[in-house]
Amino acid sequence: MAGNFSFDQLKQAVSNGEIDTVLACIVDMQGRLAGKRFLAQYFVDSAHGETHGCNYLLAADIDMEPVPGYKAASWSKGYGDFVMKPDLSTLRRIPWLEKTALVICDVLDHHDHEDLAHSPRAILKKQVKRLQERGYIGYFASELEFYLFSETYDSARKKHWQGLDTASPYIGDYQIGITTKEEGVMRRLRNEMEAAGIPIENSKGEWGPGQEEINVRYAEALDMADRHVILKNGAKEIAESEGKAISFMAKYNYGLAGNSSHIHNSLWSADGKTPLFFDKNAEWTLSTLGQQWAAGQLKYAKEFTWFLAPYINSYKRFQAGTFAPTKIMWSEDNRTAGFRLCGEGTKGIRMECRIGGADLNPYLAFAALIAAGLAGVDEKLELQKPFVGDAYQASQLPEIPKTLRDATETLANSAMLKQAFGEDVVEHYVHTARWEQFEYDRRITDWELHRGFERY
Question: What's the pLDDT at 67?
Fold first, then answer.
């Protein structure tokens, strides 16, 4: 866990007038930053110890509507407080906001000050602890894709999200010339994230007009999840300050490529020096531990798909011939695969999970991948042979759940995740998923109106 700003440095910066605002943020179920803006001197004086927030923040939908039926928080329980405990190791300056610092907070129970089990950060911390107990470090990296628009969020809303102008008019995948037009935002994003302690390796054009990919340097799982959510929040703020808008929707347009969040993961020794997946004498140079880890992720992929694809829209991305996977299998350097082996023959060997969309919550996604990987190790699973060819056309391969409804039911029945996360935690997120489905099922879509207003 690493920011780029110590508490002593913050105190000095506040004293010098360089910082006047501190954002104290939790991460909600949707993977968004939520919290308070503190007058910096007050944060330094006392609020760095703890502050409080309403517990409905982890029992609300994406519209911030309190959702009935949660055990953890409800009207009958009065929607009381939880504790927001700043993790001062995550403290960092935020260059794109004037005189501002940010800290990620853990969410604690108001009575016993223990981690609130269903909070996303606590769920990941629990899985990281399981790794630590075995002498492992989990290194993760998420590749985020998004669309950049020559629109503001206000102008996009007035257009009802239709006919939007992308930052480039045609596909510029890897093309330097066309992506130069997008550098006003992208250059700031790379440099200002780096200055905020979030090292950016590179950015590139993706397989859609105005679509971008940004690659953050790998880190320990919890640190990487913190980087991921700050990056998403900051990208929108930077874009808005430039008169642009960014969307991380998994599939904003039927005819264009979706936005993914591919997740690279591997295990290393506790000191971070020895790669535990690399064995030059093993098949695919992937160690027995690495093969068992991958086999667990394959075996349980259907059960944890919801943590990689949490919305109705997420499942619109899984279309053949779009570089989004549709099948659960692994392959050596094959982008039609749900899981791809990368870095074969090197210390950087790792498994890339390609199922997740850019709309995922990284804490939940990383935790699910760790839980499945450890299940594979504990069960001593044997890794199947890699698939060769076009997975889209391979009818014999198991499929990724096609809908939110399917993924919700596999999650609800997952004994592995209930054991790893706790039954109440799984129940909490199953309820979240079912509410999302319920909200969609009772709405009238533009597609239905277009198709049926006159013709039915």
Answer: 95
Q: Report the candidate in 235, 231, 241, 246 with the shortest Cα–Cα distance to residue 164.
A: 246
Query: Could you give the 3-state DSSP secondary structure of residue 219?
Result: strand
Q: Coil, strand, or helix at residue 228? A: helix
**At 450, is the secondary structure helix, strand, or coil?**
helix
Q: Which residues contact 231 (CB under 8 A, 6 or more apart)?
A: 144, 193, 198, 214, 216
Q: Work out the average pLDDT over 402-424.
A: 98
The predicted structure's pLDDT at residue 240: 96
Give Dmax over CA atoms of the chain in angstroms.
69
For residues 73 and 113, is the Cβ–Cβ distance under 8 A?
Answer: no
Which stretches within 45-119 are classed as H helix?
Answer: none
Between CA 52 and CA 442 the distance in angstroms is: 35
Specify the residue for token string 């993977």: 31
Assess contact for 317 and 407: CB atoms under 8 A.
no
Beta bridge pairs of residue 245: 149
Q: pTM, whole model, 2 decimals? A: 0.96
Axis crossing angle, helix 362-378 with helix 288-299, rounded to the nearest 10: 120
Give whole-number Cα distances, 332 to 283, 293, 320, 335, in Å.
12, 16, 19, 9
Three-class secondary structure of residue 32 per DSSP: coil
Check residue 264 and give its pLDDT.
Answer: 98
Q: Three-state SS for 378? A: helix
Q: Does 96 have pLDDT greater than 70?
A: yes
Cα 299 versus chain centre, distance: 21
Owner of token pair 């499929």: 399
Render pLDDT for 207-253 as a digit per residue (tens, 0 to 9): 889 999 999 999 999 999 999 999 999 999 999 999 999 999 999 99
Transcribe 301-366 into DSSP letters: HHHHGGGT--STGGGGS--TTTTS--B--EEES-TTSSEEEESTTSTT-EEEE---BTTS-HHHHH
Distance CA 14, CA 322 (A): 49
Mean pLDDT, residues 22-48 taken together: 97
Phi, psi of 435 (to 5 degrees): -65, -40
Domains assigned to the chain: 7-116 (3.10.20.70), 128-447 (3.30.590.10)
Above 60 in pLDDT, residue 1? Answer: no
Helices (H), ranges, 32-175: 40-42, 120-133, 153-158
**Alpha carbons 71 and 328: distance in angstroms, whole number:** 33
Q: Are 26 and 84 in contact (CB under 8 A)?
A: yes
CA-CA distance, 310 to 416, in Å (whole number)? 19
**Amino acid (one-letter) located at 44:** V
CB atoms under 10 Å from CB of 261, counted, come to 26
